[in-house]
Amino acid sequence: MKLRHVFTFATISIALSSICSAQANPKLENATAAVLRAFETHDIVMFGEIHGNKQEYEWLRSLVATPEFADQVDDVVVEFGNSLYQKSVDRYVSGEDAPLEQVQKAWRNLVGAIGPPSPVYASLYQAVRETNLKRRGKHQIRIVCGDPYIDWDKVQDREDIAPYLGHRDDWYAQVVKDEVLAKHRRALLIMGSGHFLRRNGPSFIERQLRSAEAKTYLVVFGTNTTGGYDDLDHRFDSWSAPVIVPLADGWVGELSAMPVVMGGTVLFGPVASSSRPAASASSPPPLKLKDVADALLYLGPRDSLTQVFMPRAQLDGTPYGKEMERRLTIEGFRTNFIFEDEEAPQFSWPQPASGGPPPLPPPPKNMGAPLPPRPPSQ
Fold first, then answer.
1. Domains in the chain, start-ordered, CATH in brackets?
2. pLDDT digits (tens, 9 = 90+) for 335-370
3. Among 219, 207, 201, 295, CA closest to 50
4. DSSP string, 303-325
5. What is d(CA 367, CA 349) in angstroms, rounded to the nearest whole number?
6. What is residue 360's DSSP assignment?
7. Which of 69, 207, 321, 333 suits a disulfide with 328, CB 3.0-4.6 Å?
8. What DSSP string describes 333-348?
9. pTM value?
10. pLDDT digits (tens, 9 = 90+) for 57-112
């Protein structure tokens, strides 16, 4: 009986300890300081971004301009960078006189983007260039392009896209292994959260990097939405953004992951609090934040976040605008992926007049085709 009582009290003690840990206040850290600290023990810091976010790239630009970051980190590997133009990017970010009309092909000519890319991506390239210009004679930061080397001048139909589209993750992983790990360098990896989240264990990319003996640390973007679109968690209200929060302990890591990462939306549309389906007894429990990442980057309340676009006014009547229309037609998208305004809320209910999000076309038939040989870098 005594042993049974000892076991019972021990079990209760462990349970109470677990509850207290889950309710503990999170350890908030200045976002830049947290990244620098992560690089003390990891050679790869992965950042799962939300595409086109203004506040996110304001912080990233300040990060690469921080002397301690530029001293420690060798490479920034970007999803929004076509590997075909790596040579031009190297010249540009190192401070050489590289023609902008050539360099911008790196972030404009992508296979992984729908429509014209947000100007925030060009601003990061510029920020790295400006940092390197101030560090003449010192360690330089390199931007490494992680998107496959598609040449849009040679694309005529959707089947021409398929090999590149079907190998985006494995190409990105291979670039990191070849350009970073094989050279014993440290890198910040920037890619959409969906490519990095640990759903049933590490993502494909992270598994590949770990198999090459990389020490990885994953930070994901997130906000104060903890359920449907209207479910805002006011425990975030006192936080002074931008901050990074470790997820292993405390109540933040216990939150359901996808509402926080997606701002209460799914793909392009919001999830209403009252319309969420009830979980069945056989359905797996929702992933917690601590399951999908090591830390959360918080940039402010959901309704304060802004998405930045290249508006239609900058495209109409230009060669690039016509090329965007051609690509969208080839990809099977309507041209309403070209936006009227320069900025809009990052997450919002669709306007009734919009008719809802455009349908996604089916994938090309030959998605499994191998990548063609890599041409010389331009």
1. 24-273+282-308 (3.40.50)
2. 668 889 999 999 987 555 555 555 678 888 888 899
3. 219
4. GG-EEE---GGGTTTSHHHHHHH
5. 33
6. P
7. 333
8. --GGGS-SSSEEESS-
9. 0.90
10. 999 999 999 999 999 999 999 999 999 999 999 999 999 999 999 999 999 999 98
